Amino acid sequence: MSDTLNPRAGMGDRVRRQRGDQVRTGSGQMRIAMIGTGYVGLVSGVCLAEFGHTVVCVDKNPARIDTLTAGKVPIYEPGLEHLMAKNVANGRLSFTTLLPAAVSGAQAVFIAVGTPARRGDGHADLTHVMAAAREVAQSLTGYTVLIIKSTVPVGTNRKVKQAVAKANPGAAFDVASNPEFLREGAALDDFMHPDRVVTGVTTKRAAKVLARIYRPLRLRDVPILTTDPESAEMIKYAANAFLATRITFINEIAALCERAGADVQAVAEGIGLDGRIGPAFLRAGPGYGGSCLPKDTRALARIGQDHAMPLQIVETVIRVNEDIKHRMIGKLRSLCGGHFNGKTIAVLGVTFKPDTDDMRDAPALTIVPALVGGGARVRVVDPHGQREGKALLPRCTLAG
């Protein structure tokens, strides 16, 4: 099955909603359970409540639920705390550790738990996804669509369906894929004004539920692509791998520009003005990092190997991205006269990108320890990375 719920989806001249407009929820509000209150789960739960749905966010960590119930957001994301407070106040959003109560009577249950890279082989670790699915199965009442929001390898939706059916043979349910495309630091805008929504389903009944959930976006002519679960799962990995490739490409061009005497910023602008290329993800830097691109490129490479179809471009991107971090260390050493010993070096920003407190796989975690290990005194300035920085870079002086 491969069609669109919106007949205008994909039109180049589609009209996007202006940011100042009010969200039009209309009819069709639903009761939704969101399993997981990490970055994806919390942002998704808050935004779905803003759409007009009644959302209960579930997490096994009592301290995290206490923090959220007190109106505090445990991650830094611009605008999230305000939008969360608004929807808690109007009764559409709540938090609990009690999964059965949240799932019972829900028409849709999202699984948005972590899928970190598995130690040793780079595969996505599905332990939390499968555990959540089995626990949800015990609490299903009436027809429910179980929606996988976590980034998972191709075929995971099928495995989840089998696990739920085994745990609760009498349950009436479907499993659907609905990958996220959120940029940290701009997640609210990405959810409320997406380029597209991707859903992977096997039944028309499940498709109708997803259509109701995202009705506010359909009313604004946002393309909603409905396909099979395997294709939806692959879209997420392919998109992230392509973005990682663009970043790595411009970083290699930057290295060549330095040798050849060209200006990489001018080069990036020049190629970005080509309508076939565009300017996004063409800013040279110390390599990509964060919670998605590193683990997703590694997972996709493993998927290719498992299917006897090695993805040579993706594997090269992974290797080159690591090389870029170490190349940056060499550049800094050269600028410091061949050694770091006794030097005082200021590092402006250690999170993997601006407007986030996330340091997962940040290039700074490779570069800064090399500076310290070489004898440098390192002073880090980061407005949002102090808490993580103190834990991960203990031998540095940090300031906001």
> Share of helix among residues?
40-55%
Radius of gyration: 22 Å
Instruction: State the major sheet.
Output: 6 strands, parallel
Count, helices: 15
Q: Report the strand count.
A: 12
* C-alpha geometry: globular
Number of domains: 3
Low-confidence stretches: 1-26
- Classified by CATH, the class of the largest domain is Alpha Beta
Order of helices and strands: EEHEHHEHEHEHEHEHHEHHHHEHEHE
Average pLDDT works out at 91
What CATH architecture of the largest domain would you give? Answer: 3-Layer(aba) Sandwich
Secondary-structure-based class equals alpha/beta
Distance between the termini: 51 Å
Strand content: 5-15%
Order of neighbouring strands in the sheet with most strands: 4-3-2-5-6-7
CATH homologous superfamily identity of the largest domain: NAD(P)-binding Rossmann-like Domain
Query: The CATH topology of the largest domain is what?
Result: Rossmann fold
